[in-house]
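Quick one: structure tokens for this chain, please?
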Amino acid sequence: MASGTRHGAVSASSASRYNGWAMTTAKQEALKLIETLPEDTSLEEILRELAFARMVERGLVDSDQGHTISQDEMAQRLDSWVK
């Protein structure tokens, strides 16, 4: 991880390609996402959607920054959890 950058932090250069997150506030992005949901969406579903969007954003930033592992390493990690 780059020094001075917390996990999941979005740099100005990488953020601009993710739906303009750097150009708008978190509140604006949350409202935009909520507006796409059906009117009868429960609070729990809204929270899940917001959490999912944040996890995807963090994953894309991590990938752009080279914070990834190989499929073999992931398989080894999963195997160790099962034991």
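The chain has a mean pLDDT of 80.
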